[in-house]
Amino acid sequence: MKKTILMLLVLLMLTSLLVGCGGEEEVTTEEGLKVGIVLSSGGKGDMSFNDSALRGLERAKEDGLIADFQYMEPRETAEAERNLRFLASNNFDLVIGVGFMQEDDIALVSSEFPETKFAIIDAVVENDNVASLVFAEHEGSFLAGAFAALMTTRNELDGIKEDTVVGFLGGMDMPLIRKFELGYTSGVDYINEVKGTDVSYRVAYAGSSPAAFNDPATGQEIALSQYDAGADIIYHASGGTGGGLFRAAQSRGLYAIGVDSDQDWVASGNVLTSMQKRVDNSVYDTVLAITEDRFEAGIQVYGLESAGVALSPLDRVGVTVEEAYEMGNISEEDLARVKDMKEMIPQDIIDEIEEIREKIISGDIVVPDYMSQN
Amino acid sequence: MDILTQIFNLQTLYATIRMATPLVIAAIGGIFCERSGIINIALEGMMLMGAFIAVLISYFTGSPWLGLIGATVFGGVFAVIHAFVSIKYHADQVVSGVALNMLAAGGTVFLLNVFFNTSGTSPAVNSLPYWGPFKPTVYFGLLFVLVAHYVIFHTTFGLRVRSIGEHPHAADSVGINVELTRYICVIISGMLAGFAGAHLSLGVLNIFREGMTAGRGFIALAAMIFGKWTPFGALGAGLLFGFFQAVQIRLQGFAIPSEFVQMIPYIFTVVALAGVIGRATPPAAIGKPFKKNNRS
Fold it and tell me: Exposed, middle or buried: residue A27 (CB in 10 Å: 0-12, 13-18, 19+)?
């Protein structure tokens, strides 16, 4: 009897380990380009990073660039290596790793399979068969900071307080997130400098381990503390922790700025804009490059110029919001709320942001990059 | 001065109470379990399961109250696994706890996929209404402290629980049903942990997020030990942890390095454990399987 129970326990543990890496047997056999992708924590449906990458592959499939793609969701980081090796050994033409956590795994597996092409998002791996897709998050965050600073000094939006304070909510305290923070605060400083305003910022991180990206309860407490300190717009770079920010924005009737993908619909009417990392574009470009036989290894930076980073539309409702409506994720009232909010954003601020964007592209404004500073 | 008023105000007090609530409730669950002699490191997993079930039920019925009840009941059901394995089959209680934590972490993501076709964040659901400045779960938490104190220290059942945690064979010799009492205690702990999870997903928030308990089950365990396995002790410890968390959040961004600020709650825990509260002595029979007629 004791043995039976032990067996049961072992089975329990095994099933829990297997969850998330199901479908290892489903290997497509169709002709054409096959792409495999290993997602980062959060997985499919994170309304962010992973979904954006998958959207890029969906588009590539619709456009006939690839026959099919398969995604895998490692339940823990140690599993990513196994997933990558599985895809590479099953003759996938391109294997993509999403997220900096897979840096070492991609480095290892890509040297084991020199004939296979790899791509890693958000990290740099210096192998001859790896394209490192990185983003100029600091430039996009600079725009977010400039936008927040401009909005908080005005009164077009409901609920904007006298205090000119804006907030930043970070997930795990690490260099990549510091890069967002520095870009954002530099954007605020820039506005203070050219406009003579006195906008200050509050910055807080949810924690110092990867769990800090999955902790919306702490995210909400941080957001509330910043709203209490006079902030009316908070930008986040915190993955799922940001869910708490949106909740706080809704309950206080104040504002948030989304990140990674277009999150304008998540708390309809309270998310002013989103600093999008167009992971979909970078993935699509990489696939396109392979079909046109011009795949290049090495670092590829997606910045403002190539629309690798961009603010979601300020003057109208973005495509993602409309999609969310069509898929039934938000109601008609939600859609209307987003529309009303976007209409309240003054045109001169929109023009100003566009001007700053052009100045960054032309090099007139140099945005400090935390990664190269440290 | 500006810093002080930013850190110590009414909002900080509210935040302290909000953040202490899940810790205190889960810690009381831990107290019942460990007082009866069963280690429960699966609080984290039970909370996570509770948080998920609460959102699931609220999503399908539209009623957060049903979600809260469902999470509590299911927390108890989930705990039966732990009770069964460690009481009936004398398995290692730590191993069983670890297995449950893994099952909850993987299982909730799996179920998120099944029901919501996502592995990150669930859709927003109806959450509990405000009662005054707080959600109802906060008041229930306080009620649980009082009830648990009364039950453990002022009822026959409580005396039995304490005695089987100290010396199960002696308790057995005077006719106490050790196994049944332990079953009840483990199930109570699961129900309270499930309730604590529902507080996070339906009280504090209105969504479920993969891994959203973020270690709170383990901090609850620390609060239980810190509070010397007493409900009021757990309340004090939970409030202390909640307070330092609230202060930590507000101190970030001032001149002090953030790494140091984030350490504050843990430093105080270590200091308190090392010197202030004195020795924390667990129940004598904790972790030892009870085998009738087989003394060791």
Answer: middle
